Each structure stands twice: as structure tokens, then as C-alpha cells.
Fold this sequence. Notes:
Blueprint: H1 11-15, H2 17-27, H3 32-36, E1 42-45, E2 60-76, E3 84-93, E4 98-104, H4 109-114, E5 120-130, E6 133-137, E7 140-143, H5 149-154, E8 159-162, H6 171-181, H7 194-199, H8 205-213, H9 218-249, H10 262-269, H11 276-289, E9 296-301, H12 307-320, E10 324-328, H13 332-346, E11 363-367, H14 373-385, E12 388-393, E13 407-413, H15 420-427, E14 435-440, H16 446-452, E15 457-461, E16 471-477, H17 482-497, E17 501-505, H18 514-518, H19 523-526, H20 535-544, E18 552-555, H21 561-572, E19 578-581, E20 594-599, H22 607-614, E21 624-630, H23 637-647, H24 651-662, H25 688-704, H26 712-721, H27 724-730
Parallel strand pairs: 4-6, 9-14, 9-15, 10-12, 10-13, 11-12, 13-14, 16-21, 17-19, 17-20, 18-19, 20-21
Antiparallel strand pairs: 1-8, 2-3, 2-5, 3-4, 5-6, 5-7
Helix pairs in contact: 8-9, 9-25, 9-26, 10-12, 11-12, 16-25
Amino acid sequence: MDAVPALDEPLKKVLGPATAKVMAEHLGLHTVGDLLHHYPRRYEERGQLTHLADLPMDEHVTVVAQVADARLHTFASSRAPRGKGQRLEVTITDGSGRLQLVFFGAGVHKPHKELLPGTRAMFAGKVSVFNRRLQLAHPAYELLRADSEEAVESWAGALIPLYPATAKLESWKIGKAIQTVLPSAQEAADPLPETLREGRGLLPLPEALLKIHRPHTKADIDQARARLKWDEAFVLQVALARRRHADAQLPAVPRRPRPDGILAAFDDRLPFTLTEGQRKVSEEIFADLATEHPMHRLLQGEVGSGKTLVALRAMLAVVDAGGQAAMLAPTEVLAQQHHRSVTEMMGELAEGGMLGGSENATKVVLLTGSMGAAARRQALLDLATGEAGVVIGTHALIEDKVQFHDLGLVVVDEQHRFGVEQRDALRGKGKQPPHLLVMTATPIPRTVAMTVFGDLETSVLDQLPAGRSPIASHVVPAADKPHFLARAWERVREEAGKGHQAYVVCPRIGDEEDGAKAKKKSPEDEAEKRPPLAVLDIAEQLARGPLAGLHVEVLHGRMQPDDKDAVMRRFAAGEADVLVATTVIEVGVNVPNATVMVIMDADRFGVSQLHQLRGRVGRGSAPGLCLLVTEMPEASAARQRLNAVASTLDGFELSRIDLEQRREGDVLGQAQSGTRSSLRMLAVIDDEEVIAEAREEATRIVAADPDLERLPALRTALDALLDEEREQYLEKG
């Protein structure tokens, strides 16, 4: 009998180099253990047809369905022998909907013989749109024959596991590879302490792995999922509990504001009263600042709820106590914007050491990478001497040359844009660890806050200040109703006619694909989606066409910082009517006179991102309007997502929708890499109870044994979770 491969055995030794290479490159799977933790996405029962109704666009899917119809078409083609090309169109059905498959050229012969009406098969491919209908072009398929002994054996009897797959590796090939390594599940070390596992009636880990991949009943699947969810929730919460425990051991200087200091003077000059929410959150922050351990607090709030004001009051409290406060912004545009709004809010209180400055005043300095040498030298001097109590900057603040007199508070804006080294480098600039306030304008459901920001206390601002105008949002179906798009540009002109301004947002910049545009497209290419609309192209079209006569400017990430700032200043001053931009304007940009936003190819943005962008309008007394332009068909998941955004301004509701749609694939920051998430089984929205209980258990275990000396298997699981990328993400708080 062959030896069972160890869990850390490289897949190339077990499956061969070719399959292992595809698994590593496309699924991030390198070892036998990795493959065993690549769980089925769902299961099919023999005889039951799947739902085709809500297939996700641009994703690789696996469906089980029956051929309803197959037709072979011949068309003229200069590429094909004898000048005639062939296209096979196959319609499959699942009882709830229909989907078209298309095969071209030499690829038609095998499916033409095999995919006859009545045939049942598994199909895998990427969902695209052609002639406004969903289709799979050249899908891979595996026939499901009731009499095939091999098929019945490899799909484990009654339940067929369907695995997250890619174009290079279909679900059924992954299933066969897993069957090869399944005996190794017996070797899996159990990270859950035995008392916890038995107390909660959970399966041992080896048994859970067997049942998730080769279930005989639905009860097997439920038991295995319950166990594997606990693993993920618990190991993650232990990582966070250890971080909280370590932070609680650190010393910090308590910072209490003076009753007659700069904070009191600032509050006196505010032209409005704070909302109840702002007052409550400020009290939570001031209580943390007064303790002898560093504050670690997450401040989340709706777009426009006044987070910057709350953060500024915290910064002034620290200045009152003799310390300095630094605000870290992800982009130069945002750092400059924050600097402008903070100095405007503070007035003469920001003119420390200057003629006309108040007696309580301090200096507020800006520090970015593109500053001139003289201004930079002065800013560095002001920080080192303590002359500047408040500094606002980009990652330039983190450089070795930047020295603080006494850094007491770090405010991080939109923390998900920063890595652990950057945050820690800034924290290391204090004499003792400074207090930390992390801000995000992306509302986060409680479970995600417990999962991703579990090492932070959370404060929520969910009240909008009085005077904020409502924003109306509408989907503009450009393909179905082109006259709607023409009307959108008319609305922009109408707003400009009233003296207001508009944003037009595009997914990309636009000069990077000129070469690709010139290529002639074949019928196969036409089945692919066109590239996203681009700022430079759209700005030119609008200036020459529907918005001719208006002053149109562009803003994008590849412009020089000085040019970006000049464009923002002109737009803020009302000198430009329309700003065509990428998502560089997503966060923090504040132009109260801008009343309308048109988002092109809106289906290419995430729900939370659309909500962020929309928050740039309706910031003054005039109502805001946001138009979501899309070519996606009415029935597509992308259109449903846009309809959800248009139907509510509640960011917390939208963040739930966003999370449900993304299947928490990037809760731990992994979506960008396109590889597997470390949360493969845990659904952070549905599993709130598991997460909350795991947090309690983890806190208890870490308090008793911070280094996990008595739990070596848990320690090993923790090391596996905290590989470099995830550790950075966990520590961004």
C-alpha cells in the first residue's frame, strides 16, 4: 500500500508538476494541506437541476444542466479553410432558466457529437455577455452518465461537490485531485482545545475534512461546515486576542485636555453644535486618551457624518496636553484636502507663532513627498522642535528623517490603504507608543468589525449633521435606453446652468491600451467585454459633444501632485464646471457646490465604493444627484447590485449587500490578489454567533496562556494563518 503523503508535502510530488503549477498559480494551493482546505463551494444532488437565473458576470462558474437545443451555424470567414467558419450554439436549461453556450472553429466538432438534446453534463466557464444575453464561450464540460461507474465513484455517490475553479482547472479535475490526497486528512493536527471541541459537540478535524469532501448525507455537510467554521473563527480570534493582549501591556502617556486650552477655544468658535453622536464618540476617545495604555480605536462613520471634526478634536486634546498629533492620509490629494479643511476650521488657532495667531494657537503643517525642499525643511524643523502641534501628511511622514518632539496621537484615515510596516514605523516615532485612532468611511457590519478590526475598540457615527442634503440615485441603462444617457448629460448642463458643478467618474485613465484598440476583432473576440471606459476618452468626447461649452477638467492618479492639487483647487473655487476623474476623488474630497455625479460603467465598481463616490455630492444646501450608468442587462447580478445602491443611502445596509455579494472573499484583504481567502467556510454576516463565541473563548485562552505553550497544534494553525500577507492585513488596525 502506498504511503499517505504528509500535509506539508508539495503537490508536485503527489499530482505531478503540470497540475501542481496550475493549482499554485491560479488557486494559491501549494501543499497537500492547502488542497484539503480547498472546500466545495456547494453540492449538486443527482437528478436535481441547478439555478441558472443569477449567474455572476465575469466569474468562472460550474453548472449542472441539461441540453435543450443545439444548432450548428456556418458563416463567412477569411480565417477558416474554404472561407467558411462554424459556430455551435447550445442552449442548456435547469428548469428555472436557460443559458447559451457557444463554440467556434475547430472547437465545435466534439461538443457537436456529444451535446445532444437531453444530455446532462457539468459545464464550467466564464460568464460573459453577447448580444445582451448571458453566455459561456467555449466552456469545458464533463458528461454525467448514470451508468458510468467511474463518475459515480469519483463524485462520491449521491452528492457532487462543486469546487471554486478557474478557466485552467475545472471543478471536476480539482475533485479528482482531492480524492487522491484525501487519506492524508487523517494526519491533520486539531487546533481546537479538546475541552472546547467536546463542550460544543464539534467533529474532530480529520473527520470534518473527510465529510466536507466526500459527504454521504446533507447532515455530513452540516456537521463538517459547523466544525470548519469554528476553526476559522477561533484561530483568527486567537490572533486578534494575542494582539490586544500585547497592546494592553504597552505603556502610553495619558493625554488630558486643559479646560482653557486650544480645544475649548476651538469648540467656542464652531458655528454649529455637535451632533449627539459626535459628542458621544468624542467622550469615548477622550476617556481612552486619558489612560496609561495606548488607545486603539476604530472610528467608522457614514460619508459626511463629521469624522474629520471628531478626529481634529482628539488631536487638539493631545496638543493641549503638550503632545503632537499626526494624521496619515492615503493620497496627496486627500492630505492637501484635509490640511485645507483643518486650517479653515481652526482659523487663527492654526497660526501658532504667527502675527494674528491666537494665544492658544499651534502650527498645522503639511508634509508630502512632492513638497519643495525649503517648505519640507521648515516642516521637519517645526515637527522636531514641537512648534507644530498638528501634522497632516502622506507616507512621507514615515520616513527616517521625520522626527517628532513628542508624538502623542496617530490618526489613520482610510486605514485599509496602509501596510503594517508603515503604521508601525509611525508609531515608533513617539517616546512611548502613541495613541491610535483609525478612521473609515466604509460602514462595517458588527461581525466584520469583530473579524477584521478585532484588535480595535469600535465607535460608530451614524448621524448626519443637520443641513446635509438628500442624494437621489438612479440607474441609467445605456444599452437598453440610450436616450436616458442623453438625458443624464442634459441634467449635468442644467446643474451647471444653476451655477453648480459635476463629477464624471470612470474606471480607468485611458492611454494604456491604445495599441490594443487598433486590433481587428474576430467573432470570438466580440464575445469578450469591451475595455472599461476611460477618463481621457470620456473627457474629450464630453467636451466636444454633449457638454461642449462647459469647462471640463480631468483628474487621475498618474498626474503630477502639483497638477492634481491645482485641478482640485480650481474645481473647489468653482472655476471648472465638470471634473472627469478616476476614484482618486473617492474619499474626503469636499466641494459643497458639486451637486451631480455620473458614474460610467458603474457595474465595474463595488457597492461600498459607489456609496463612497456618491458621498461627494449633496454636501451643500442643494440636493445631490447620482447617476449610475451601465450596459449590463436587466436580469444580471451587476444590475441588481446597482439597483440596491440606488434604493438606499444607508451605508450599513449596503455594506451587508456588498459582503454578501463578495462572499467575504477579501475580508482579510485577499481580493486584490485573486487567490483564496483565509476565510473559506466562515460567512462573516451569517455566522455572527460563532464569531462572537469564538472571540470569548479566544480571549479566555489567551489570558491564561498568552504564548499558547500548552496548545502546540493551535500555535501551528496560528503560524499558518499569519503568513506575511494576512499578518499585514490583521495589523493594519
